[in-house]
Amino acid sequence: MKPVEDVINDLQCRALAYEIIFQSLFTELPQFFKDKAIENIELNFKAFESGTQSESGKVKLEAAKAVASRIMGVKLKSSSQG
């Protein structure tokens, strides 16, 4: 069994690789597809936010939204922005 540090390092490397791959693919999409993807992502975040009651879950959602915003190069609307 791998030490915990190795598992954490592996997961961090994978997450970074997925982020770079996704960002590379997203930047190549035509603007129409980017706009539709952003709209769907915002709707999905709103759905998760409405179903999340715990404070730790809300914090994780905000962190995930920040990562998604960074990957796509846009500021995602918060659930209060409508």
Walkthrough of the structure:
Helix content is 77%, strand content 0%. The protein is built from 3 helices and no strands. Helix 2 packs antiparallel against helix 3. The chain is flat, with a radius of gyration of 15 Å.
- The residue ranges in which pLDDT falls below 50 over 5 or more consecutive positions are none
Could you spell the SSE succession in H and E letters? Answer: HHH
**Rg measurement, Å:** 15 Å
The structure class reads: mainly alpha
Helix content: over 70%
* Overall shape: flat
**Largest beta-sheet characterization:** none
Number of domains: 1
- Helical element count? 3
* Gap between N and C termini: 47 Å
**What would the average pLDDT be, to the nearest integer?**
91
Number of strands: 0
The proportion of strand residues reads under 5%
Structural topology:
Elements: H1 4-27, H2 31-51, H3 55-72
Overview in brief:
This protein is an all-alpha fold and 82 residues long. The protein is built from three helices and no strands.
